[in-house]
Specification:
Layout (H helix, E strand, L loop, with lengths): L1 E6 L2 E3 L5 E9 L3 E10 L5 E7 L5 E3 L7 E6 L4 E6 L8 E11 L2 E6 L3 E5 L2
Length: 119
Amino acid sequence: QVQLVESGGGLVQPGGSLRLSCTASGSIFSISTMGWYRHLPGKERELVAVISSGGATTYADPVKGRFTVSRDNAKNTVYLQMNRLKSEDTAVYYCHARARRVSGWADYWGQGTQVTVSS
């Protein structure tokens, strides 16, 4: 089994910063894409930012220039540095990883961490 454990969510004022972390563990041969999605109230889950094993990144338009995704391949960990946070960033943030086990490739998700931006 593969587990993704997230940390770093919480309450922050508008304009503030938070850093999310997510570590994958289990019987993993390799991980390709890792990243972050979010579920805003009343909306579908949406992509925030993803990063390939080689470091190529993709960002959703609303977060470009404010959020930075990075990863430490040796630690199977992905990070999301969120700056200049806005109230509309309030959501549950989910870590995602596409990993290969003995049974083949599959998608895995974290349990979600709440980010609340409010004064």
